[in-house]
């Protein structure tokens, strides 16, 4: 794209204007729209998105979760919804209802089985995401969280271009020095497209041995906080490693509900509170 104008400001093609109007109508019933992004894979971005959605629901909010990872949709598995199907009715297509009433949409709900790959080029992926925004009957929501695939390609660009009035992005990283490089790209992506960066979350932030209590910074220490400070964006918090996060995700049980007294669950809840404060501050 070079140094051209932001993608968000590009003119919408004439043939998509009707679809854009439908998106505006559907999204007008949602108070806050947030995108969870990362510059690279393997940082636990989807785990963070799922648990933040549940944490906001635990705070009494009406929450929707859009799994925009077309090729690797795993939100349903983490919420115990794998095998569910979207249902169509006269107003449109209805999300699947998950734990605590969160409304979930994912490509996984449209696949015949878990082994079927989605072999699509960019235009088809963009069309699918636009349809998720235009034709899903989300209903009134306090928050719509969009879990984006890693990087800054087709899916993130489509969400930013077509999702109106986005409140901001939440960037997930791990403490390592290597991950800090790609966080800069994610921050630059948001800024170039005119989207506020709500903050950076450092996931997998050290491990405390359950037997001896020894703290081990397996992936390094403090990388997320340092990069947030250097880029001038808020640091939302650290989420420590906990083997129960993986176990809960594999079994389809929300970690923050099942293990709400753990340091990791408390971190998710504290970060959800900060995100709410940011969004509510924008409304004031």
Brief overview, please?
This protein is 39% helix and 19% strand.
Present the secondary structure layout.
Layout: H1 17-27, E1 30-37, H2 45-58, E2 63-67, H3 75-78, E3 87-89, E4 92-94, E5 96-97, E6 103-106, H4 122-135, E7 141-147, H5 154-162, E8 168-173, H6 177-192, E9 197-203, E10 207-208, E11 215-216, H7 223-231, E12 235-239, H8 243-251, H9 255-258, H10 263-283
Parallel strand pairs: 1-7, 1-8, 2-6, 2-7, 8-9, 9-12
Antiparallel strand pairs: 3-4, 5-6, 10-11
Helix pairs in contact: 1-4, 2-10, 4-5, 6-7
Account of the protein in words:
With 284 residues, this protein is α/β, with parallel strands linked by helices. β10 (207-208) and β11 (215-216) form a beta hairpin. α2 (45-58) packs across α10 (263-283) and α6 packs parallel to α7. It has helices at 17-27, 45-58, 75-78, 122-135, 154-162, 177-192, 223-231, 243-251, 255-258, 263-283; strands at residues 30-37, 63-67, 87-89, 92-94, 96-97, 103-106, 141-147, 168-173, 197-203, 207-208, 215-216, 235-239. The strands form three sheets. It has an eight-stranded mixed sheet with strand order 5-6-2-7-1-8-9-12, sandwiched between helices. Strands 3-4 form a two-stranded antiparallel ribbon. The chain has a two-stranded antiparallel ribbon with strand order 10-11. The protein has one domain: P-loop containing nucleotide triphosphate hydrolases (Rossmann fold, 3-Layer(aba) Sandwich). The protein contains ten helices and twelve strands.
């Amino acid at each position: 794209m070079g140094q051209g104008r932001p993608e968000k400001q590009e003119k919408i093609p004439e043939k998509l204007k009707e679809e854009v109007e439908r998106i505006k109508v559907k999204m007008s019933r949602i108070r806050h729209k947030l995108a969870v992004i990362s510059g690279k894979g393997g940082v636990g971005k989807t785990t963070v998105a799922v648990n933040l959605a549940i944490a906001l629901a635990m705070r009494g909010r009406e929450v929707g979760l859009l799994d925009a990872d077309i090729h690797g949709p795993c939100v349903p598995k983490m919420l115990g919804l794998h095998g569910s199907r979207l249902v169509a009715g006269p107003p449109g297509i209805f999300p699947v209802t998950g734990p605590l009433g969160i409304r979930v949409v994912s490509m996984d709900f449209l696949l015949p089985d878990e082994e079927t790959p989605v072999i699509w080029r960019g235009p088809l992926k963009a069309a699918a995401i636009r349809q998720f925004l235009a034709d899903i009957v989300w209903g009134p929501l306090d928050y719509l969280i969009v879990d984006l695939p890693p990087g800054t390609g087709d899916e993130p660009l489509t969400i930013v271009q077509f999702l109106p009035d986005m409140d901001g992005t939440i960037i997930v990283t791990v403490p390592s020095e290597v991950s800090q490089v790609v966080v800069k790209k994610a921050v630059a992506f948001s800024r170039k497209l005119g989207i506020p960066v709500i903050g950076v979350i450092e996931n997998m932030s050290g491990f405390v041995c359950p037997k001896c209590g020894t703290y081990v910074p397996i992936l390094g220490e403090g990388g997320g906080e340092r990069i947030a400070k250097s880029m001038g964006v808020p640091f939302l918090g650290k989420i420590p490693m906990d083997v129960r996060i993986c176990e809960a995700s594999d079994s389809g049980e929300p970690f923050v509900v099942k293990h709400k007294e753990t340091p990791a669950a408390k971190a998710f809840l504290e970060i959800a509170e900060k995100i709410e404060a940011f969004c509510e501050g924008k409304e004031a």
